């Protein structure tokens, strides 16, 4: 029996009394992935990206481990909810226009001490001030650096279009704008190198593309390490007591951690290890988050139909954004139908071994987005479900 076949047998036994669709997290794999992230971080603390987890119980579990500290959140409403729930170090990774949330933040000492907001433009300070509604608490601010690699005088850009702040001078100037502004304090710098951390460099069947990605990423790491260090020096001249410099992501943990200027690493997807994180030379994780759909039809030889399945991930549309049939091995989509809204046909000789009511296990393309489809996660240890916990959705929160 292969390792994957053994996993399927375990998951089927663990969920035998549960009707599909159902989602699980294999805690042995989750904990092993957490341990590997800590190893790769080389002693620097890891801030957990909540968008990649979206389950309070699992955030608590990983933050109880040595080597993890703090949360990187994705909306202001989520940040405030987490802070009210007892998480005392929440970095909002994206600028917000949530006026009601800013009024709440500025009026509550506990929330203001726990939550740090992201800016890359003084106009965002104007919005926060206009939203204060009399709240006078000092708002903690993090500055985001654009990590994109620019070539040919800026005519070629590689990297996500996030912050407009690219140079040390630009970031330092915004830091000065914050320092001049009553009611705000610069406490950190963040730089997410998505073109390094979030792009696989060993894509099966595409050796030339993979080689090109590795060359690009090596150049990007060198350029960013130099520029990030210069940015930190420039900002420290304005804000000597800067608390943290955050960088990285699951795919670049060890590289970012090697930079002296970086004080903490961000990671989250590496806990669940969705399918988009299979194509890396820098690490190999264990799939920890899966969902099962039930076989409801057997239309013919070599085909079964499962209920549901149309759970695409965000990003540029493409086949790599679809969940992948994982267990049993050997199933594939019908190219004319793909993953369906209500039903999904699956092809392959192994389909003839499946009976009505059997489970087919899938891996989502991205990590936390799976939790937008399910109210609960069943936590599996060995071949048993040892706990069932709510996702954000199960706690009636869909922040985006």
Q: Which labels suit this protein?
A:
32% helix, globular, 400 residues, alpha/beta
Task: Describe the protein's architecture and organization.
It is a single chain. This protein is an alpha/beta fold. Helices cover 32% and strands 24% of the residues. It is built from 12 helices and 19 strands. The strands form 3 sheets. Strands 1, 12, 13, 14, 15, 16, 17, 18 and 19 form a 9-stranded mixed beta sheet that branches. Strands 2-3-4-5-6-9-10-11 form an 8-stranded parallel barrel, surrounded by 5 helices. α5 (99-107) crosses α7 (122-131) and α8 (168-179) packs across α10. The two termini are 42 Å apart. 46% of the residues are buried.
Gyration radius over CA: 22 Å
The global form is: globular
The total of helices stands at 12
Share of residues in helices: 25-40%
- Which structural class best describes the helix and strand composition? alpha/beta
**Ends apart, CA distance between termini:** 42 Å
Give the strand content: 15-25%
> Could you give a short account of the major beta sheet?
9 strands, mixed
Number of strands: 19
Spans of 5+ residues with little confidence (pLDDT < 50)?
none
Average pLDDT reading: 93
Q: What is the topological layout?
A:
Elements: H1 3-14, E1 22-26, H2 27-41, E2 46-49, H3 56-63, E3 68-73, H4 76-84, E4 90-92, H5 99-107, H6 109-114, E5 115-119, H7 122-131, E6 139-144, E7 149-151, E8 156-158, H8 168-179, E9 184-191, H9 194-197, H10 207-238, E10 244-247, H11 253-257, E11 264-267, H12 269-272, E12 289-300, E13 303-307, E14 324-327, E15 332-333, E16 343-347, E17 359-363, E18 376-381, E19 384-390
Parallel strand pairs: 1-18, 2-3, 2-11, 3-4, 4-5, 5-6, 6-9, 9-10, 10-11
Antiparallel strand pairs: 1-12, 7-8, 12-13, 12-17, 13-16, 14-17, 15-16, 18-19
